[in-house]
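Please annotate this fold before class:
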Amino acid sequence: MLHKDLENKYYLQWIQFLKKTEGWDRTEIETYQFNQLKRIINYSWDNTVGYRELWQKYSLTPQSFKSLDDINLFPCISKEDIRDRLEDFTVKLPEADYITTGGSTGIPFGFYRTKEAFGRELASKAWQYYRRGWKEEDRQIVFRGLPIVSDDKTEYFPEYNELRCSSYYMTNEWLKYFATKAMEYKPLWLRCYPSAGFLLAKFIKETKTIFPELKGILCASENLYGFQKEYMQDVFGCRVFSHYGHYELSALAGFCEFSDYYHVLPQYGFVQLLDDKNGQVTTPNQLGEIVATSFIMNATCFIRYRTRDFAKYAGNNCSQCGRPYQIWSQVEGRSQDFFITKSNRYISIAAINMHDDTFDDLKYFQYYQDSPGIVVLKYVPKNTFTPSTLIKIRAKLNSKFENDIDIFFAEVDESGLARTPRGKFLYLQQKLKVGING
C-alpha cells in the first residue's frame, strides 16, 4: 500500500520545494526569508484586525519592514494574545480546521490550520528524517500518545506502514508483549516519546528481551535528555534522532545527520532566540526563548510568536554538513513528567494532550499529583465556564487514563498555579518520586 502522505499533493509539492532549496547559500536563504516575512506581514495587515491594531500601536505599517533586521521593530505576541482574540488574528479560510493544544504550558490554546499547512508540516518532518535514511515505505513501530482501542493495546496502520503500541501501558507485562509483536513485525524504525523509548530500552536491557535490529530511533514531543539518548543508543545499537516542533507550526528543527545539533529549517519559518531583555541571542551556549514567525500558517497567523520554549544557541553554520542554518545545541522547556496510576503505570503528560475543545472554557490549568492514582486539576475558569465543563473534562481524562487515575478539581486564581524559575507555568506539578529519570 502506498504511504498515505505520498497521496497528499501538499506533502509532495513541499518535498520537491525542500529538495530544490536544500543547497541554498546564506544569501539565498536570507532573500527567501525576507520575502516571506514581507508577504506574511502584508497579508496579516490586510486580512486581520488583530495584527493591524497591534502594529498601529507601535506606529508600524508593512512599509516599516525594509530589511530582515526590521523584524525586530515588530512586537512579539503571546499565546494569550491570540487565544483571547482568536478571530481577530485569523484569516477566514474555508478549508481551515479548528485544532487545540495545551502544549507543555497548561494554557489551553485553539487556532485554525489549513490542510496545506499540515501537509507542509508532515513533509518538513519527513525531510529531516531523510537525513537519517528514513523512507515512507519503511516499517516502523510507534510508542506515542495515540489512542489504541484494541484489547492487546496495539494497532497496525497499513496506510502508514506502522505498528502502534500504547504508550499508556509501559509495564513489564505489556512491554514483553510489545517486544514479541515487534519481532513478528520486524520494524526498521522506532518512533517514540523519549520517555517511552527510554522505558522500552530499560526493559529490554534489564530482562535481556530480544528486539529487532533497528536503523534508527526518531524522537519528538518531549525533551530528549543526554542520558536517555546514550542509553537507547547502547541498547538498540543505532542512532537516536530528535526534532523540535510544535502544533502552531512556526519553528521546526532537527538533528544533523552528522551531529546531535538541531538545525532550524529556514524554509519553514523565521526563528530567533531572544534573551530576557528581548535582545537576540548571538553568543554560543547562551539560552534564549524561541520566538518564531510561520511561513506555512495562513489561517491563524503567527508572527514573532513567543513559544515559551528555550534553546541554546550554537551558531549559524554547521561545520559538518555545511548547511548555513541556525544551530542549537540543546532544546529546553519541554516537560516530560509522568503521572503514576493506581496500577503503578507511568503515563507521560505528552500522551494526554488534547487537540479538541476540551479545555476551551479554562483560562489556565495545571495538574498536581502527590499520591499514586490521584490527580488534582487546578484551573482558572473563563467567563464561558459552566458546571458541565468539568463533566466534559473528567470524561475526556478518564478515557485517556482508562479510569486508572481519579480526577479531582480545584478552582484557583492565577497565583495558585506553580511556575518554573523563568515564570513558565508547569503543566504537571509532580510531587511523587518517579524512578525513570536516570
In short: The two ends are 40 Å apart (CA to CA). The longest helix spans residues 26-47.
